[in-house]
Amino acid sequence: MDMKRTGELIAAARREKGLTQRELAERLHVSDRTVSKWERGAGFPDVSILERLAAALELNVLDLLRGERTEERDVEAALKEAMEAFRQQRRRERGKLLKESVPTLLLLLVIAAFWLNLNPPTTKKTTRLSPPGSIKAGCWWPTPRWSFRAR
Hints:
Helix content: 55-70%
Radius of gyration: 30 Å
Strand content: under 5%
Distance between the termini: 81 Å
Number of helices: 6
């Protein structure tokens, strides 16, 4: 699968139909910038859009995946190509998600550590004896060995 060849095919088919990028984008419910990105080879249409794109341009989905119009179709080879294209797209999406989420989570952990350091939990005076190691309601740490009510 070659994004540049697919982009050239999309551009050629769109021009043959006499459509502008904006008109094609409106039919597919995407932005005209997205169509431009596909035609430049900077991106590939999402799997969910491939069928609608092929129908709008009167192409076959396999032609879009290959980046060329074909008359003879080798089904097994085309399916392997399509599956590889889907795998590559998933890998890119997973990598992008991981690259975006890890720094955010680390930042949240740092903020939480500073907040806990600046605002340590406070203990309340008890009105009765607490057994050793018991956990008071609302506190997540064990109580002191014995605590007495102040008089």
